[in-house]
Design goal:
Order of helices and strands of chain A: EEEEHEEEHHHEHEHEEH
Radius of gyration of chain B: 26 Å
Number of helices of chain A: 7
Strand content of chain B: under 5%
Radius of gyration of chain A: 19 Å
Strand order of the largest sheet of chain A: 1-11-10-4-9-8-7
Strand content of chain A: 15-25%
Number of strands of chain A: 11
Shape of chain A: globular
Distance between the termini of chain A: 31 Å
Oligomer: heterodimer
Structural class of chain B: mainly alpha
Number of strands of chain B: 0
Shape of chain B: flat
Helix content of chain A: 25-40%
Chain lengths: 299, 286
């Protein structure tokens, strides 16, 4: 159901579809009560200061959002609407100018091992093999596991994303889709609570993109992380998200948080041909239509 | 989408290696001599060039004082190596160049890295670095002779002054152009300051260091020659050139130029090879 945003405060509805995902549940620490919010943004205003021009560009204004544990939240909006700024705040790269962002009840102060990120441009180290790129996520930690445990985890992560056999390849030898699999494996290898994804499939071709979405849905059904997924594709947001936060641009504010009540698995099923999918898609499009036309020049 | 997710993993993406099913890389039948083809072409190419040179010179169209036969040039080179006029000078030049490059790298690399990493250092040092990078090296010769005289110190100094700044500037550029998303990845995955430097910034800068040294070689060669030609130290290939010119010894002049050409090409090729070796992901042309 589509719930309408009342003012700035957006209270999360009951997590109806949140955990109704397919795939064998991973045994292990499925964290906390489902309804507990793990990421909380309270009237956040964020932007960038330009000291030379003595101005500040407001990317997000008065945004409040709660993301529940184990939820897949997709954030959709036109380019330049500040959706990346939001994820960068959760990651700990950017501090809000006003308001607070909390993860697990603690204000975010820099990056942390509980949050991993998948980048649009992959951000792999080109001089490292696939294997050692994935290892990078573990080796810097003070509490890193033993060497043998590390390689076991790397192998596990690579098999999860279907890259077994490519351990010794270099990123430049791989296709875009495969590079992003490495990026995903690197983010998953430490089993972080929260997975931040900044337009992860934005740079891969359309066919690969659809395959990657399907695989990602399968992977997340297994690993059960909390996912914040930025995209500018409405289809992608609806196909993947438990909820979709629709952000308008300049400055970015949340227009609405749409509950996606489609059964999972969606990518491997026929969710895309269901009338409900079309309905949700149309609804989000109607919210963004003016924005998209306005933002076209900016692209 | 009608395929299943797991099938999609193996079917939708072209890969450089077989993942199980059909082979992607197949063997190609290539002649055993294929690797030598380019070398053979070069040999033939140079052979033809020298033959034409010889014929033009023999035809007497040009004054032999400016344009000796290639056979005389090679004869002069052969004699020069036999009677010991060339080898010591070549050794002098080469060792000066190498020592100069080592000193330049030892100074240029750390200073360049430091300038790339510290905005303050960059702000303070860059006017001098850019002035020295742009200043034609010849302009320094009178001053250097004044300070250091005609000895080897002056020749070495001019090589270092020529080579150190391109190395410095390249190292700085390398650090400054580190892909910001790699740095962000470093932060996300817990790399501290030291790890960011050793695992991201330095490997990223390595190819820049190599191309800096490459430019340093080119500039250093010029520095070496002007030091030897104008410094009047009585040693080095530049001195050979100078003396051959004074004595109207065209074959010797050409022989020395040929040696210089071979030396420069060899050094530059060595560095290009190294550049490809250290950074295969940059996909530099062979």
């Amino acid at each position: 159901m589509a719930e309408t945003a009342t003012g700035a405060q957006l209270q999360a509805a009951a997590p109806s579809g949140a955990r109704a995902r397919a795939g064998g549940g991973r045994p292990g620490p499925v964290p906390g009560p489902l309804a507990a919010p793990v990421i909380v943004a309270r009237s956040v205003t964020a932007g960038y200061e330009n000291r030379r021009k003595k101005t500040r560009l407001i990317a997000l204004r008065d945004v409040s959002l709660e993301i529940r544990r184990g939820e897949f939240l997709a954030i959709v909006g036109p380019s330049g609407c500040g959706k990346s700024t939001f994820i960068n705040m959760v990651a700990g790269f950017v501090k809000p100018l006003e308001g607070t962002v909390e993860v697990d009840g603690q204000p975010v102060r820099g990056t942390g091992a509980d949050r991993a990120m998948v980048f649009q441009d992959y951000a792999l180290l080109p001089w490292r093999t696939v294997e050692r790129n994935v290892l990078f996520a573990m080796e810097n930690r003070r509490d890193k596991p033993s060497k043998s445990e590390q390689s076991a985890r790397v192998a596990e992560a690579l098999s999860l994303v279907g890259l077994t056999g490519f351990e010794k390849s270099y990123p430049h030898e791989l296709s875009g889709g495969m590079r992003q699999r490495v990026g995903i494996a690197r983010a998953l290898v430490t089993k972080p609570d929260i997975l931040l994804m900044d337009e992860p499939f934005g740079a891969v071709d359309a066919m690969t993109r659809e395959a990657m979405q399907a695989e990602f849905e399968r992977i997340i059904a297994q690993t059960r992380q909390t996912v914040v997924f930025i995209t500018h594709s409405i289809d992608e947001a609806v196909m993947l998200g438990d909820r979709v936060a629709v952000i308008s641009s300049r400055p970015g504010t949340i227009k609405e948080v749409v509950e996606v009540d489609l059964p999972r698995p969606r990518l491997t099923g026929d969710a895309k041909s269901s009338p409900r999918f079309t309905e949700l898609r149309e609804h989000i499009w109607s919210l963004l239509q003016d924005e998209a036309l306005g933002a076209k020049e900016a692209e | 989408m009608t395929t299943t997710a797991s099938a999609a993993a193996t079917t939708t993406e072209p890969a450089g290696r077989p993942t199980g099913g059909s082979k992607v890389i197949e063997d190609l039948q290539v002649s055993r001599f294929a690797p030598f083809r380019n070398a053979a072409i070069t040999v033939v190419n140079l052979g033809v060039f020298f033959v034409i040179w010889e014929l033009v010179a023999r035809a007497g169209l040009l004054n032999p004082l400016f344009f000796p036969r290639i056979s005389d040039t090679f004869q002069a080179m052969y004699d020069g190596f036999r009677d010991g006029t060339i080898a010591p000078q070549l050794g002098h030049s080469l060792s000066n160049l190498l020592i100069g490059l080592l000193i330049s790298a030892a100074i240029g690399i750390p200073v360049g890295l430091f300038m790339g990493a510290s905005r303050t250092a960059d702000l303070i040092l860059s006017p001098y670095v850019w002035a020295m990078t742009s200043l034609p090296r010849v302009a320094l010769i009178p001053l250097l002779i004044l300070i250091l005289g005609f000895g080897n110190e002056m020749q070495l100094t001019i090589i270092v002054l020529s080579a150190v700044f391109p190395i410095m500037v390249n190292c700085m550029a390398g650090v400054k152009t580190v892909d910001p998303s790699l740095l962000r990845a470093g932060r996300v995955f817990g790399a501290g300051r030291l790890q960011t430097y050793s695992k991201i910034i330095l490997p990223f800068t390595l190819p820049f260091v190599i191309s800096g040294i490459n430019q340093g070689i080119a500039r250093g060669l010029v520095g070496m020659l002007i030091g030897e030609l104008l410094g009047g130290g009585g040693s080095g290939l530049g001195f050979l050139l100078d003396r051959a010119g004074d004595q109207f010894d065209a074959p010797m002049l050409y022989a020395t130029l040929l040696i210089l050409a071979v030396m420069s090409v060899a050094l530059v090729q060595l560095m290009r090879w190294l550049e490809r070796r250290v950074a295969p992901w940059r996909d530099l042309p062979a």
